Backbone:
């Protein structure tokens, strides 16, 4: 019988392994020649030995169990095994006489108690080396995550900065990836985004050794659009961490993208498109109000809204209401808050002046206090986990929620006067809605009509063919003020609404809505 030379290197990168394996082969050939051993086969492999399942090693063991091999020549025992299963199989094969010896340049292991003990000791040390390496890597990853940096290769649009070991924006791809997010947020199909990126922009993935440099795959695009890393949150099996890299998008944009992709519950395809289904409940039994389309014998189509009557014992007596009558009632609500142009412009001017009040500083101070409370809750959460007061699941979920809140508050503080600007924008949107809402509803599509009704109010109930709406507070204030003005409009002089110099004055009845904003 002859001997087998076995050479292995952990790295599976062919460029990095050829020289090492070739070096092992040359040394072991010289050793076999020096000892005048007959070598029948040289077996090489580029696989990690930390777990069982290496095909070349298994083929060698099959020959050993078949007693086709007298011995093994190897550079070191850890080349043969770094896990207890493969190591024990070699000790067992030697113990049972399947092979006579295992030869290395520094030692020869025979079938005796001392050699087999030394083999088990070396295999144990090799296993400990693997475990220690794994623990050190995990510890290093954890420390890097705690500092806010992503371990490993970052997502598209970012690069590793080797000197500082941080994550920086990819100057070649960052703005293109952001453009993909913008297209998605505008409702562009992911497949159209993919075509534009590949064909029009020439977008290609990063090149690493022999990988990359190819067009972006659709699966990777969808994965990218679901990665919270882009708004500053790192989610890994080690936990949830706030990243220190530059966010590409805001958290609101991220969640809007998820809704666009249907990841929060995809709506079922509908045969008919009804504007108000799912918004209105029956005022008698509380069931949802649905719609159906009827066609008479002359071919005219009519849409009716009626209670689903899904509660069997409710005995609901409500009758159906035609779409025209329902829309007429909604239009009546909208007309009550209709704000004419002569009031809209001075109100918007007044709103811009109000943005420079002391209230800005109070809001910022409140934000800073809320952020401080959030940081304190994060510290307390860590202490609770250390004391085993909560389990891992509760810890991860609560930490993720607090980190998202922290990111949102920090983003608001970074943007100058951002909270008040949002309030001002909301007020401006309310005033413009009061001016444009009735016209948009009258001439809009079913989707626009649905959106208009949702913005008008909530808790919609239909009873006795009458729709009731809990109108939002600012609209109630506008309705009240418009009612007073309309009753006295004829006796009011134009000078009361604007100065002689042409400067607009905010109507008194709009002051409450501006304060509410």
Residues:
């Amino acid at each position: 019988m002859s001997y087998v030379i076995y050479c292995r290197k952990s790295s599976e990168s062919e460029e990095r392994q050829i020289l090492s394996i070739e070096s092992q082969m040359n040394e072991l050939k010289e050793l076999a020649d020096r000892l005048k051993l007959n070598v029948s086969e040289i077996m090489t492999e580029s696989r990690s030995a930390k777990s069982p399942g290496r095909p070349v090693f298994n083929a060698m063991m099959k020959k050993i169990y078949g007693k086709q091999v007298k011995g093994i020549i190897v550079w070191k025992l850890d080349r043969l095994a770094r896990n207890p299963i493969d190591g024990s199989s070699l000790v067992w094969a030697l113990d049972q006489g399947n092979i006579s010896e295992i030869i290395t340049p520094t030692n020869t292991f025979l079938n005796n108690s001392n050699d087999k003990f030394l083999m088990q000791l070396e295999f144990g040390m090799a296993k400990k080396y693997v475990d220690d390496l794994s623990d050190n890597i995990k510890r290093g990853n954890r420390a890097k995550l705690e500092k806010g940096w992503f371990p490993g290769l970052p997502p598209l649009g970012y690069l590793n900065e080797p000197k500082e070991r941080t994550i920086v924006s990819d100057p070649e791809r960052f703005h293109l990836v952001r453009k993909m997010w913008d297209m998605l947020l505008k409702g562009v199909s992911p497949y159209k985004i993919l075509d534009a990126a590949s064909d029009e922009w020439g977008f290609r993935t990063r090149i690493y050794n022999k990988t990359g440099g190819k067009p972006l795959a659709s699966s990777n695009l969808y994965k990218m659009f679901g990665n919270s890393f882009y708004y500053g949150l790192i989610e890994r099996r080690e936990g949830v961490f706030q990243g220190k890299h530059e966010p590409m998008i805001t958290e609101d944009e991220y969640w809007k993208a998820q809704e666009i992709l249907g990841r929060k519950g995809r709506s079922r395809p509908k045969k008919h498109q009804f504007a108000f289904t799912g918004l209105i409940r029956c005022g008698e039994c509380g069931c949802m109000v649905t719609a159906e389309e009827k066609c008479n014998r002359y071919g005219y189509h009519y849409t009716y809204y009626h209670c689903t009557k899904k509660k069997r014992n409710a005995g609901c007596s409500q009758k159906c209401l035609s779409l025209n009558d329902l829309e007429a009632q909604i239009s009546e609500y909208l007309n009550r808050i209709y704000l004419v142009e002569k009031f809209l412009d001075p109100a918007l001017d007044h709103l811009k002046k109000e943005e420079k009040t002391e209230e800005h500083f109070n809001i910022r101070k409140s934000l800073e206090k809320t952020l401080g409370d959030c940081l304190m809750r994060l510290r307390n959460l860590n202490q609770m986990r250390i004391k085993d007061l909560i389990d891992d699941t509760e810890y991860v979920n609560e930490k993720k929620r607090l980190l998202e809140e922290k990111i949102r508050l920090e983003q608001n503080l970074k943007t100058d006067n951002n909270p008040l600007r949002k309030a001002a924008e909301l007020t401006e949107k309310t005033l413009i809605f009061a001016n444009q809402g009735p016209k948009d509803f009258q001439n809009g599509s079913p989707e626009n009509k649905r959106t208009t009704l949702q913005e008008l109010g909530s808790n919609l109930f239909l009873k006795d063919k009458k729709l009731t709406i809990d109108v939002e507070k600012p609209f109630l204030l506008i309705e009240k003020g418009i009612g007073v003005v309309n009753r006295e409009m004829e006796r009011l002089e134009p000078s009361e609404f604007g100065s002689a110099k042409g400067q607009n004055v905010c109507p008194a009845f709009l002051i409450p809505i501006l304060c509410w904003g």
Notes: The radius of gyration is 36 Å. Residues 113-146 form the longest helix (34 residues). The longest strand covers residues 2-8. Residues 62 and 68 are 9 Å apart (CA to CA).
